[in-house]
Amino acid sequence: MTGDTHRPHTGRRRNEAARQAILDVAVELLGSAGDGPVTIDTIAAAAGVGKQTIYRWWPSKGAVLLEALAGRAGADIPVPDTGSLRADLEAFLRATFRAAGNPHTASALRHTMAEAQRDPHAREPMRDFLASRRRVLRGLLERARDRGEIASGADLDLIVDQAYGVLWIRILNGHARLGEAEATALAGSLAGQARG
Amino acid sequence: MTGDTHRPHTGRRRNEAARQAILDVAVELLGSAGDGPVTIDTIAAAAGVGKQTIYRWWPSKGAVLLEALAGRAGADIPVPDTGSLRADLEAFLRATFRAAGNPHTASALRHTMAEAQRDPHAREPMRDFLASRRRVLRGLLERARDRGEIASGADLDLIVDQAYGVLWIRILNGHARLGEAEATALAGSLAGQARG
DNA sequence: AGTTGTCGAGACTTTCTGTCTCGTCAATAC
DNA sequence: GTATTGACGAGACAGAAAGTCTCGACAACT
């Protein structure tokens, strides 16, 4: 990720402060844009930046939004390793659901997922982002499997998708709450399912 | 649903053939629009209809797409009632995953879900559509609970969301297959979870 | 001092949504 | 049987937003 150009690179250097300001503003707008859409002009204006500066470094709006999201979401989610599947699952899902239940975060997730459906440049970053989140949960399950708490033939990816599936469908459709109580119930279900 | 106006209603009547043509074309375009977006002009042109005819009967593009989707999806999904939770779940999820795994249907579902995130007029129809699908699965679970196959205190809505959550996150993110094998595995997991 | 490439700013093009207008046509009222 | 009413197809129009292009200014390297 750290830029090491092989050529000496003449000319003015990229303004990292502007780059960070763009991402900061994108996260901010994504979180507080329940009503209107997040536009490039709004981002540029709020970041004190020209539009071309954005398009010089990202191929599309969706790419900016995805990088902004990936830089934040998941930052505050611990990776528990207590030695108990049930306890690990509960801690992880409670933290995850609490974060995703926050209206700002939920708004950001909704907007970015919608953007990823229409912007090809956002599809792969979104896949990468979700893959990184899934990987953490899968690692937790693998440790439980190594301890013998999960049958060795169990489909861990299916368990992972059940957990994040509940999260995403509730964020996108908003038909049910997404809080710690739901996380605890889900942890119990999944742990029981894995055991059987 | 059948229109019974109280006033005699003078003037030319609504063209039901045009209405149906619009919905047919919308479904068709939703399924085959992997690349570009589905636009109002395209729908109007393909249906041989003026744009205003669309906006006279639907408040927005999203409303058209949602009504088109709701009219088709779920039409071919049986509601099994074999007396066995495991068998019912497997039959239902296999049919559901097979339908959703079809590229045309998957494309339609992705587009509509994205549209529902940005178009307020599409949010409620989408909620209604998903609620109707969830209701079928929940009914299946309730029958199993009445038979004693599921603990009476179990959170049926959570089980429902685990099933549809897997479906939606895989449709939207495309990181894993969505076929009958996956449906069978999921049915086994959920049935085992409910039993415990 | 000259070259190169970024900077903020903003005009511009393109695409799409949703509105408005027009002349036409069908169903009811008189 | 003619007038009224309102939907019809067609398409011009306005507004929003993405993404491109150009400008003069500025910073880093030769």
UniProtKB/TrEMBL annotation, chains A, B:
<dbReference type="Pfam" id="PF00440">
    <property type="entry name" value="TetR_N"/>
</dbReference>
<keyword id="KW-0238">DNA-binding</keyword>
<dbReference type="Pfam" id="PF16859">
    <property type="entry name" value="TetR_C_11"/>
</dbReference>
<dbReference type="GO" id="GO:0000976">
    <property type="term" value="F:transcription cis-regulatory region binding"/>
</dbReference>
<dbReference type="InterPro" id="IPR050109">
    <property type="entry name" value="HTH-type_TetR-like_transc_reg"/>
</dbReference>
<dbReference type="InterPro" id="IPR009057">
    <property type="entry name" value="Homeodomain-like_sf"/>
</dbReference>
<keyword id="KW-0804">Transcription</keyword>
<feature type="DNA-binding region" description="H-T-H motif">
    <location>
        <begin position="39"/>
        <end position="58"/>
    </location>
</feature>
<dbReference type="InterPro" id="IPR011075">
    <property type="entry name" value="TetR_C"/>
</dbReference>
<keyword id="KW-0805">Transcription regulation</keyword>
<dbReference type="GO" id="GO:0003700">
    <property type="term" value="F:DNA-binding transcription factor activity"/>
</dbReference>
<protein>
    <submittedName>
        <fullName>TetR/AcrR family transcriptional regulator</fullName>
    </submittedName>
</protein>
<dbReference type="InterPro" id="IPR036271">
    <property type="entry name" value="Tet_transcr_reg_TetR-rel_C_sf"/>
</dbReference>
<feature type="domain" description="HTH tetR-type">
    <location>
        <begin position="16"/>
        <end position="76"/>
    </location>
</feature>
<dbReference type="InterPro" id="IPR001647">
    <property type="entry name" value="HTH_TetR"/>
</dbReference>
